[in-house]
Write a structure and sequence with these properties.
249 residues, Rossmann fold, 7-stranded parallel sheet, 9 helices, binds nicotinamide-adenine-dinucleotide
């Protein structure tokens, strides 16, 4: 049987990149998915393509920072599919700025998108998961939290915040049979990554990995399937590296 048979999942930032791969991979494993993204056109295209391939998906346009729009995505899961089993907090941005040149607005934009967005979507999902006595929350952090990375103090702070949030929430909701885990992707080949990393930088990372190939969105999506399925029922509060063996913690 498919690993996520008839489970209902909301995936944030699912119009492209890693989130798109998570949505497609979850649908292939039998999940019914809400493709949630501020890019409404992209979200619609992904959801339509999943349906064209025999899966179940709806698109929802909105900003994870906004309680009303995040709440609408959660409501969409309930109205279209009748329940909410899985939340994947994937939406995130990663522009680079040195701290000396960073503006307060740039700091706030990263922290609000990457960390407050996780807070909004999670707090709005939890009452439904608590009521049904089960739930799986998967938070996408970053390996940069483990290693640090220049010109990304705002981003690394937000991704470290996600790991702290994951651990604290896992303790809070474990008694309700809700699992909360984080994934720290390494250098993942997406269009967004190409805008901030040169080929030379990417090659240097691959040389440091145990696995000498680019790690791709599907590699991350498959680990998310594991963390969203009953295969990981004994795990919560954990952080799983998907980085080709770049760093080991
Ligand atoms: N690509 C990498 O190398 C890498 C490595 C580590 C972690 N990550 C993390 O993985 C996640 C996805 O990264 P990606 O490379 O696929 O990026 P991406 O830009 O391809 O995808 C991010 C998606 O999130 C959406 N989004 C951004 N802000 C939003 C908001 N406020 N509300 C709703 N949707 C919003 C975007 O429209 C986009 O569709 C991010 O959280 C990123 O930090 C990526």
């Amino acid at each position: 049987m498919a690993l996520l048979n008839r489970k209902v999942a909301v995936i944030t930032g699912a119009a492209t990149g890693i989130g798109e791969s998570i949505a497609r991979t979850f649908a292939n494993e039998g999940a019914r998915v809400v493709v949630f993204d501020r890019d409404g056109t992209g979200a619609k295209e992904v959801a339509a393509d999943i349906r064209a391939n025999g899966g179940a998906a709806v698109a929802c346009r909105g900003d994870v920072r906004d309680a009303g729009e995040a709440g609408a995505a959660i409501e969409r899961a309930l109205s279209d599919f009748g329940r909410l089993d899985i939340l994947v907090n994937n939406a995130g941005i990663y522009p680079r700025h040195s701290l000396l040149e960073m503006t307060e607005a740039q700091w706030d934009e990263i922290l609000s998108t990457n960390l407050k967005g996780v807070f909004q979507c999670t707090r709005l999902s939890l009452p439904h998961m608590v009521a049904q006595g089960s739930g799986k929350i998967v938070n996408i952090s970053s390996v940069t939290f483990h290693i640090g990375m220049k010109d990304l103090t705002h981003y690394v702070s937000s991704k470290g915040g996600i790991i702290g949030f994951t651990r604290a929430l896992a303790r809070e909701v474990g008694g309700s049979n809700i699992h909360v885990n984080a994934v720290t992707p390494g250098a993942i080949e997406t269009e967004a990554e190409k805008k901030v990393a040169t080929q030379e930088q990417v090659d240097a990372v691959v040389a440091l990995q145990c696995l000498r190939r680019r790690i791709v969105p599907l590699d991350v999506a498959r680990v998310c399937v594991f963390l969203a399925s009953e295969l990981s029922d004994g795990m919560t509060g954990q952080t799983v590296n998907v980085d080709g063996g770049w760093v080991m913690y």
